[in-house]
Fold this sequence. Notes:
Blueprint lengths: L5 H12 L6 E2 L5 H11 L11 E6 L3 H9 L7 H4 L3 E7 L1 H7 L20 H19 L3 E5 L5 H7 L7 E2 L2 E7 L17 H4 L10
Antiparallel strand pairs: 1-6, 2-3, 3-5, 3-6, 4-6
Helix pairs in contact: 2-6
Amino acid sequence: CCLTTPKFAFLEAVIRRRRMTRSFDPTPLDQGLVADLLDLARRAPSAGYSQGVHFLALTGDAVPAFWRITGGADWFDAGITAAPVLVLPLADPDAYTSRYSEGDKAGHGLEVAANWEVPFWITDAAMAAQNLLLLAEERGLGALYFGIFRNARLALDEFGVPPHVLQVGAVALGYRAAADVPSGSATTRARRPRRDVTMPRPPGAWQ
């Protein structure tokens, strides 16, 4: 069945339309709206249904505190730092190692975090963050996912995040400013053609 049939057209349109916002209107978002978005975004895959993904939503004075601690204003301009909400997707490895020590999951060594070749707590948090990006687009909001490159642990400590819980970047959230236009690397680099990223391919064709 074609993915452009009416049954799938809406989700496809949101996926195709979604882009990163780099200029936000500072108008605050309704707290109920933010809570609803995060509640929906957490409905992402969860290995073993461990549910070790959390969202920390920063608003008000916590937003400039985040930028100050992480030095984010040194590399982001005022259009980005004007976002009224910052959401930190968080991953709790202990939730996964605990879950995989239970009877129905035990026996594979996954009760030890170092034995996970792919740390699914990071994967699950990333999928929840993608849900949030798509939901923001669906609601007519702007969103920007970005990495925290400096003092991430200091910021988490400031906001009371337990030491064993990991950050998986951040999402700036708010209304798009009227002046916001598509920008960034996606406007200067072509999307790779489908044949280069879709399997199967002939043996030896990987590049």
